[in-house]
Design a protein that fits this description.
- The protein is mainly alpha-helical.
- It has one domain (about 5-129): Tetratricopeptide repeat domain (Serine Threonine Protein Phosphatase 5, Tetratricopeptide repeat, Alpha Horseshoe), CATH 1.25.40.10.
- About 75% of the residues lie in helices and about 0% in strands.
- It contains eight helices and no strands.
- It has helices at about 5-20, 20-35, 40-55, 55-70, 75-90, 90-100, 105-120, 125-129.
- Helix 1 packs parallel to helix 3 (about 40-55) and helix 3 runs antiparallel to helix 4 (about 55-70).
- GO terms for molecular function: RNA binding.
Length: about 130
């Protein structure tokens, strides 16, 4: 690829993530952080999805910290990706913390938290929110 812009970087990262090529997605994100434009919420949410699918909590926490650093942690896309990732990694407390930071009108975050509770047998909590 001769021209690397934010769209091409993010699209390739998402493609790797959706195609089950998690390691490649992480490598490209690292490369993007070193040599390319600042990663978008689309790229970060794709990599967070990989973290959840592969249950790699430490890597997910690192991406979360990076999102905080660059100011993308308050977007609905990142918040819901964080809730999903923490839930899939079995860290319901961290999912709840991310959920508590979301706005009440963010239906995607609500759905992610309800699913997280349901996946781990917290039916009363799922009904309660």
């Amino acid at each position: 690829m001769t021209v690397r812009d934010i769209i091409s970087w993010s699209t390739i990262i998402a493609g790797y993530s959706q195609g089950g090529c998690g390691e490649e997605a992480f490598e490209l994100l690292s490369w993007m952080r070193r040599e390319g434009p600042k990663p978008t919420e689309f790229a970060l949410s794709s990599v967070l999805s990989v973290c959840g699918s592969m249950a790699i909590l430490d890597q997910g926490r690192q991406i979360h910290t990076y999102a905080l650093t660059v100011g993308l942690d308050q977007t609905a896309m990142i918040r819901s990706a964080l809730i999903n990732m923490y839930s899939k990694c079995g860290s319901i407390a961290e999912a709840e913390k991310s959920f508590s930071m979301s706005e009440n009108d963010d239906i995607v975050s609500w759905t992610a938290m309800i699913n997280g509770y349901a996946e781990h047998g917290y039916s009363q909590e799922a009904i309660g929110i």
